[in-house]
Amino acid sequence: MQNTVKEPSSNPMKISVITCTYNNVNTVERALLSVLNQNHKDVDYVVIDGGSTDGTLDVLNKYSSHFQTFISEPDEGLYDALNKGIRHAKGEYIGFLHSDDFFITNEVVSKIEQFILSSSKRPAGVSGEMVYFAKEGSRLRMHRRYSTSHFKPWQFRFGVMPGHTATFIQKAVYDTYGLYRTDFRIAADYDLLVRFIAVEKLPWRYTDQVWIAMQMGGVSTANLQSNFLLSREIEKLLKEKNIWTHSILLYFKYVFKFSRKLYYSIRKKYVVDWTSGLGS
Predict the structure, then answer these.
(1) Cβ neighbours of 119 (radius 10 Å)
(2) pLDDT for 187-221, tens place per residue?
(3) How many CB atoms lie under 10 A from the CB of residue 270?
(4) What span, in angstroms and rounded, lies between the C-alpha atoms of 158 and 167?
(5) CA dihedral of 55, 61, 66, 68, whole degrees rounded to 10
(6) Residues in contact with 236: Cβ distance below 8 Å, sequence separation at least 6, in sequence order
(7) Among 1, 76, 165, 262, which residue's beta carbon has the most beta carbons within 10 A?
(8) 15-131+146-215: CATH topology
(9) Would you kindly state where each structural domain of the chain is located, as residue ranges?
């Protein structure tokens, strides 16, 4: 770990947020507004568009003067776009906010900075929690909470990982240990966290603070076929890293996910879209 994780300095912390989008005209403005209205004053906002054709570019151009980096061009998929964003990011820590999702409040980035600074040494990465939601009429119905505040590396063998979009990683770590693999369709984020946390054993911190509201229907939660592909890719990458698992273990997590979804279907909780009405 020598010369990889930076120690605290007296300078204000710049934090990069990367949004990658492609043809998400219906939700991208909410994501943009949740970043642009953060009360943290040193957000490096990087927006990567894959060459949208559905009106998304009109929304992006509306706010582009507020982005520190804005690129719109064809790419080779999500993980290629994420890597492109990392290469352009200038913050000490880097996190992602997908265009279907949003920060749960306007104080999230400030809370992330405070959590990082509360460590005696800079962690390689920090992970918060997420809530999944789906539209129910004009409201956003919570489906479950993704909680990894007590995460342990051995849980990777069960297909469990810290919430990817609720994770912020030091740029120096990417520079030293590499970016996302683009040969995986769904599990490259899982692979990256396994490498950093379980293989390289980098110092990591977890919190029960909810940072991200994540919309259901993404590539890893879309249907049974995507869940099957995800499990196959996880099994492959764990085998490559000599981390024992079994396909049966990887499906245990779906029992837990179902129980949490059932819990929230009974309680009927809702997520507040605090960005509503903020658009120019």
Answers:
(1) 12
(2) 999 999 999 999 999 999 999 999 999 998 765 44
(3) 11
(4) 19
(5) 100
(6) none
(7) 165
(8) Spore Coat Polysaccharide Biosynthesis Protein SpsA; Chain A (3.90.550)
(9) 15-131+146-215
